[in-house]
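Postdoc handover notes: sequence design on the structure in folder B. Input tokens:
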């Protein structure tokens, strides 16, 4: 399988699922969206904020790749969130707008990636400031895997609130002629 095709499929899936989540969440009241339901980040809004926060953190790290990837320029200018539970937006519409912007950036960025980019060893610092050296392609996969993990939690929180998001499987986006 072509790694770049898979990464671009994951970007498409990411954008599709985020749109579904935010459309579903928009059916709830602000009180329901902010209700602490015992998830890792408390509420649905806390979980969705966490996903935006971590996307910004990871994209800022990935933006240090020597190729430069011009589509990540808006992320380079963003302030780095101070913590993984930082609340960027207290209202769903503002968070949704930020999510849409990030998803467009991610799609543009994955279109810029080359196979050679994936083989680069990226040096970055984790949230504690400890230096790490990891394969860029593996970090890109982590970005999408992390999103999938927490979107699973978000769909559970929505279901607990009486909203069924419907089909969430990646297989829904895999073309029939994927050969």
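Designed sequence:
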């Amino acid at each position: 399988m072509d790694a770049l095709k898979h990464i671009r499929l994951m970007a498409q899936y990411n954008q599709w699922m985020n749109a579904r989540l935010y459309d579903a969440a928009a059916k709830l009241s602000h009180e329901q969206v902010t209700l602490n339901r015992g998830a890792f980040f408390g509420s649905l809004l806390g979980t969705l904020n966490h996903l935006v926060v971590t996307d910004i953190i990871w994209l800022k790290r990935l933006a240090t790749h020597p190729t430069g990837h011009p589509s990540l320029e808006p992320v380079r200018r963003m302030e780095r969130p101070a913590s993984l539970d930082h609340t960027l937006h207290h209202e769903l519409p503002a968070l949704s707008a930020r999510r849409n912007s990030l998803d467009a950036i991610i799609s543009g960025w994955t279109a810029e990636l080359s196979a050679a980019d994936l083989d680069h060893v990226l040096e970055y610092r984790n949230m504690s400031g400890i230096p790490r050296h990891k394969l860029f392609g593996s970090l890109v996969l982590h970005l999408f895997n992390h999103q999938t993990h927490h979107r699973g939690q978000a769909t559970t929180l929505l279901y607990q609130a009486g909203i069924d998001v419907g089909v969430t499987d990646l297989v829904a986006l895999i073309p029939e002629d994927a050969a």
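Context for whoever picks this up: The two ends are 9 Å apart (CA to CA). Don't rerun without checking with the PI first.
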